[in-house]
UniProtKB/TrEMBL annotation:
It comes from Paenimyroides ceti. The keyword Transcription applies. Signal peptide: none annotated. Gene3D superfamilies: 1.10.1740.10, Winged helix-like DNA-binding domain superfamily/Winged helix DNA-binding domain. PANTHER family: RNA POLYMERASE ECF-TYPE SIGMA FACTO, RNA POLYMERASE SIGMA FACTOR. This is Sigma-70 family RNA polymerase sigma factor. NCBIfam families: sigma70-ECF (TIGR02937). It holds the Pfam family Sigma70_r2.
């Protein structure tokens, strides 16, 4: 499905009804614009990609709130700006201490916060539980989660491995994460 200025509203309407092809078309059409804007803001590829992914996730979850009086790309950019602001706030809440000659001995008094054996067991149990939830998903969603989060492949690598366009990979991953979240919240 190709997006043109003449058919964009009809594609958005299809997306509002849950049409997966419409979501994919919107993602493919607007990805570079949102990513490019966020890359200029962050000057960091990873942050720009993370923000863009979260932007589309939020936009697709809230697509019914989109007001057709405004351009769709403007709506996406405003979501991206808010995601970026949230990310900055989270980072500011994390405190960093610079090491210099005046306070270098201070760090010898820091308590070892590496995970204890109990913490490691709890983490393993959480991972096992998460894998059980993942197994409840359809096989193609299981596979994409496995490739992205357990094998840590990039979107391009997943696209090549599955022989699918990168846009489809991103949409499938967004959908898989949403379904997984819904499963976890139900229990």
């Amino acid at each position: 499905m190709e997006i043109t200025p003449a058919n964009i509203q009809s594609v958005i309407q299809k997306a509002k009804t849950g049409d997966q092809a419409a979501f994919t078309a919107l993602l493919n059409h607007f990805w570079n614009e949102v990513y490019g804007f966020m890359f200029k803001q962050t000057a960091n590829e990873t942050d720009a990609e993370d923000i863009t992914i979260e932007t589309f996730s939020k936009a697709f979850d809230k697509i019914n709130t989109y007001n057709e009086q405004f351009k769709f790309n403007t709506w996406l950019i405003s979501i991206a700006k808010n995601v970026h602001i949230d990310m900055i706030r989270k980072r500011k809440s994390t405190h960093f201490v610079e090491i210099d000659e005046n306070n270098k001995n201070f760090f010898f008094d820091i308590i070892d916060d590496s995970p204890s054996i109990e913490d490691q067991l709890i983490q393993e149990q959480k991972l096992l539980t998460l894998k059980q939830y993942i197994k409840q998903l359809k096989p193609h969603y299981q596979e994409i989660i496995q490739l992205r989060f357990f094998q840590e492949l990039s979107y391009n690598e997943i696209s090549e491995k599955l022989e699918e366009p990168i846009g489809n990979v991103k949409v499938k991953l967004l959908r898989a994460k949403k379904l997984l979240t819904e499963l976890i919240q139900k229990k």
